[in-house]
Amino acid sequence: MIFNKSSLSWRLLKHFLLIGGGVFSLIAIMLYLMSINFANLAVEKSMFGMAEDIQSSLVFDENNQLVYHPDQVAEVWGYDALYNNLGFRITDIHSGQVILRSYTNPKVATILDAMPDILPEGYSKSINENGSRTDMYRIVFQLKEHLLAVDLARKDLVGELANEAVKPVLSFVSALTMGAAFLVFVSVTLVSIRSLIRPVNNVTSQLLQIKPNQLDRRLSTEDVPTEILPLVSGLNDAMERVEQGFEEQKRFVANAAHELRTPLAILSTRVELTQIPPDVEPALMADIKYMSRVIEQLLDLSRAQNQAGFAHSLVDLKEIGKDVCMLLGPLSVTHKKELSLDADNMPCEIIGDKGALIILTKNLLENALKYADKNASVQLIIEQKRISVKDSGPGISDDDRVKLFERFWRKEQSALTGSGLGLSIVSEIAHAHNAEIEVICKNDLGGATFRVTFT
């Protein structure tokens, strides 16, 4: 995944994080509000439970005296030790008298002394002058023939002590849980983004693998999400139109070149048979030969682009090298260049179209013979799965290197020394054979090297 400001991955991550951050913040606020309400509810419920425990521990003895018999020693200790913060009283509803107290020392003030004489049934609370809160609870019940009320009082100091003991642990656990949940959320987000982006990356990978000579290939629509299926289909339709246009262009070039061959041949014959001034005839014949050369190379280019017409078979590169050197031997003499063939002793066989490979090798050698310096050395080197043409000429500049395989490009555009199609034909044939072309602008001889490597 690539994360930058304009990438889809970054936009998805930003949206996920913003939404996730908002959701987690809302959850934290809700938990805080719920914890406050839960604390109040817990106080009320706990006091109700304590009042019921007191009620269940009350009995009348044989002297008809109300006695408190708790099941646990801790309950007795709590009401005695925390008399100023925790206490209860039992009141007779009919007489209004307090018949039992949790702490009975009359010389010591307790929390019960600050309580109102009459409490509403259920939970209630009061705020003292110093701001402290007292929680109270009353339940009314029948015990034998007596109608009694249990009044329970507890200061918030008891709750605060419990909160101070428990709150840090709860805060730590809550923070740890929220943090772990957020990390899990981020991890799930990254995995989800990777899963969402994978189809787009697959489409991009397929596009990058399509070469100029593979316009018949189409993007696979298998496992493509519905949201990007129109984009993939649109690209396939665009490639279909490009292929059709390219095929029409190739057919036009091939047909035009083919139709021009005959008129040029007739024109050449008529010029030869016609009485033309000696000073005009050479230039006229040169122009005719140049046009014939351009037409022949256009036909070669059309054949190179039409891979369906290739007849692939086992081809010996050394035999091709020998045939081409014999064919261009006279040209090397004409241009006063030294032509040599250096072939490897090992077998140099590949699967390819023999005619196309001869054209490829011939065009490379012709370029070297035409453009190398006078008396330069031109070498055709045949190795295993490789054809190299090396010369001792002036070499190639870096600016010219990027234009070498453009159609109709020549270093000297005004000179009619070539059609500018030779290296374009080489490129098409190399691509048709899945070969790579390497251009070395300056070799050890001072010139350039063209190297075609077959896979």
Automatic annotation (TrEMBL):
<dbReference type="Pfam" id="PF02518">
    <property type="entry name" value="HATPase_c"/>
</dbReference>
<keyword id="KW-0808">Transferase</keyword>
<dbReference type="InterPro" id="IPR050428">
    <property type="entry name" value="TCS_sensor_his_kinase"/>
</dbReference>
<protein>
    <recommendedName>
        <fullName>histidine kinase</fullName>
        <ecNumber>2.7.13.3</ecNumber>
    </recommendedName>
</protein>
<feature type="domain" description="Histidine kinase">
    <location>
        <begin position="255"/>
        <end position="455"/>
    </location>
</feature>
<dbReference type="InterPro" id="IPR003660">
    <property type="entry name" value="HAMP_dom"/>
</dbReference>
<keyword id="KW-0597">Phosphoprotein</keyword>
<dbReference type="GO" id="GO:0016301">
    <property type="term" value="F:kinase activity"/>
</dbReference>
<feature type="transmembrane region" description="Helical">
    <location>
        <begin position="12"/>
        <end position="34"/>
    </location>
</feature>
<keyword id="KW-0902">Two-component regulatory system</keyword>
<dbReference type="InterPro" id="IPR003661">
    <property type="entry name" value="HisK_dim/P_dom"/>
</dbReference>
<dbReference type="InterPro" id="IPR005467">
    <property type="entry name" value="His_kinase_dom"/>
</dbReference>
<dbReference type="Pfam" id="PF00512">
    <property type="entry name" value="HisKA"/>
</dbReference>
<keyword id="KW-0418">Kinase</keyword>
<dbReference type="InterPro" id="IPR004358">
    <property type="entry name" value="Sig_transdc_His_kin-like_C"/>
</dbReference>
<feature type="transmembrane region" description="Helical">
    <location>
        <begin position="169"/>
        <end position="191"/>
    </location>
</feature>
<dbReference type="Pfam" id="PF00672">
    <property type="entry name" value="HAMP"/>
</dbReference>
<dbReference type="InterPro" id="IPR003594">
    <property type="entry name" value="HATPase_dom"/>
</dbReference>
<feature type="domain" description="HAMP">
    <location>
        <begin position="194"/>
        <end position="247"/>
    </location>
</feature>
<keyword id="KW-0812">Transmembrane</keyword>
<keyword id="KW-1133">Transmembrane helix</keyword>
<dbReference type="InterPro" id="IPR036097">
    <property type="entry name" value="HisK_dim/P_sf"/>
</dbReference>
<dbReference type="InterPro" id="IPR036890">
    <property type="entry name" value="HATPase_C_sf"/>
</dbReference>
<keyword id="KW-0472">Membrane</keyword>
